[in-house]
Write a structure and sequence with these properties.
TIM Barrel; metal ion binding; Elp3/MiaA/NifB-like_rSAM; 3-stranded parallel sheet; 4Fe-4S; 4 iron, 4 sulfur cluster binding
Length: about 350
C-alpha cells in the first residue's frame, strides 16, 4: 500500500494496523506529512469546527514522590527549588484565570501527598461554589487510590489527565523505577469507570523507543478511547539520568498528533508547551495537524520556572494576561478561533444527551 493510500485509509476508516503505523512512521516523506496533517485537520473540523479550547493551567506543587528517569521534578533531583501553593494561593490563581475568561482550570502537580483527599476535595468544592458551577475542574496529580479518585469526583472534579507515558511494558518499567505499568493502567481504568473525562498520552523520542512502541501507544489509545490525548516530545533535563540523551523532534511528534486525531477522531488533543519550546511555532503547527486545545499557564510568575519537567520551557517570565492574549493571537494567526467555554469532549457531550 502506498503512503497516500495509508493516509487515506486512516482518514476514511479511523483505523490502521500496527504494521501499517510502523510502515508510515518509518517511511513517510515531508510532502506526505503535509497530506497527513491536512487530513487530521479536516477530521478535527468534523467534530469541533475551527474551535480551539483554552484551559488555565495552575502548576500548584513541584514536589513529587516518584523518580521517573526523564523528569526534572523527580524525587532524586536535589537541585530543584521546591514549592507548594496553599489552597488560598490556588484560588487566587483561579480568580485571575476567571477574570481572563477561562472556564476550565487544570490543577497540575507532582505526586505531592501533602494535598490529602480532604484538602483537595475542599479546594474543588470551593472552586465550584466560587463560580456558581460555571467552570470545569481538571486534575493532573498522578497516581492515587480508586477511593480517592471517587471522593474527588464526588466533590466536583470533572476531568483527570494522566499520560500512560508508553504502552510498552518493558520501556515503561525501565523509565519508572518507583512505579508499575500495571498500576498505571489500573488508575486510568478506574478513572474512566468513575465517570471522569479522562486524558492519556505519551512522549515521542524517548531513549530506546521504537516505531513499534509508538504503534502500540496509538493502539492502546484507540482501545482506551480517552476524552483527551496529550502527546509531546521528550526533552532531556540535565539533572536526570537521561540528561545527555537525544530528545524527540517536532516532526515526529506532529506525525503522532495527526495519527492520534485520525485514529481517535473525537478526542481533545492539546498543542503542548513542549512543542512550543522546541520550535517558536510548535503549537501553531500542532493546531494545523489536528490539535484543538491550548493550556496557557496561570501559575504565579514567582514560582513557574521551578515547575521544570524539562529545561528551557517557554513563558517562564510571562504574566497570566501575557499568555492569554499571546495564545489568542497565535490561534487566530492560523485561521482558528478561541473558545473559552468548558470545552467538553465530543464523546462526553454525545454521551450526556
Amino acid at each position: 500500500m502506498t503512503m497516500h493510500n495509508l493516509i487515506e485509509k486512516a482518514y476514511q476508516t479511523n483505523d490502521l494496523s500496527k504494521e501499517e503505523i510502523i510502515a508510515l512512521i518509518e517511511t513517510i516523506k515531508p510532502e506526505e506529512r503535509e497530506i497527513l496533517y491536512k487530513r487530521a485537520l479536516k477530521t478535527k473540523q468534523k467534530y469541533y469546527g475551527n474551535k480551539v479550547y483554552l484551559r488555565g493551567l495552575i502548576e500548584f506543587s513541584n514536589i513529587c514522590r516518584q523518580d521517573c528517569l526523564y523528569c526534572g521534578l523527580r524525587a532524586s533531583n536535589t537541585k530543584v527549588e521546591r514549592y507548594r501553593l496553599t489552597p488560598g494561593e490556588i484560588l487566587a490563581c483561579c480568580d485571575k484565570g476567571y477574570e481572563l475568561g477561562y472556564r476550565t482550570f487544570v490543577l497540575q502537580s507532582g505526586e505531592d501527598l501533602w494535598y490529602t483527599v480532604e484538602i483537595l476535595s475542599e479546594l474543588i468544592r470551593q472552586i465550584k461554589k466560587r463560580y456558581d458551577q460555571e467552570v470545569a475542574v481538571t486534575l493532573s496529580i498522578g497516581e492515587r487510590g480508586a477511593e480517592t479518585y471517587q471522593s474527588l469526583f464526588a466533590s466536583g472534579a470533572d476531568r483527570f489527565l494522566m499520560r500512560h507515558e508508553t504502552a510498552t511494558e518493558e520501556l515503561y518499567e525501565s523509565l519508572h523505577p518507583t512505579m508499575s505499568f500495571t498500576n498505571r493502567r489500573a488508575c486510568l481504568n478506574a478513572l474512566k469507570e468513575i465517570g471522569y473525562q479522562v486524558g492519556a498520552g505519551f512522549m515521542v523520542g524517548l531513549p530506546g523507543q521504537t516505531p513499534a512502541d509508538l504503534a502500540e501507544d496509538l493502539h492502546y489509545l484507540k482501545e482506551l478511547h480517552p476524552d483527551m490525548i496529550g502527546i509531546g516530545p521528550f526533552i532531556p533535563h540535565s539533572e536526570t539520568p537521561l540528561g545527555k540523551e537525544k530528545g524527540g523532534t517536532v516532526d515526529d511528534t506532529l506525525v503522532m498528533v495527526a495519527l492520534a486525531r485520525l485514529l481517535v477522531p473525537d478526542s481533545l488533543i492539546p498543542a503542548t508547551t513542549a512543542l512550543g519550546t522546541l520550535h517558536p511555532l510548535g503549537r501553531e503547527m500542532a493546531l494545523q495537524a489536528g490539535a484543538n486545545v491550548v493550556m496557557p499557564i496561570i501559575t504565579p510568575t514567582s514560582v513557574r520556572k521551578q515547575y521544570a519537567l524539562y529545561e528551557n520551557k517557554i513563558c517562564g517570565d510571562d504574566h497570566p494576561e501575557d499568555c492569554r492574549y499571546c495564545i489568542e493571537r497565535r490561534i487566530q494567526a492560523v485561521g482558528q478561533e478561541v473558545d473559552l467555554g468548558k470545552g467538553d469532549s465530543w464523546k462526553f457531550i454525545v454521551g450526556s444527551l
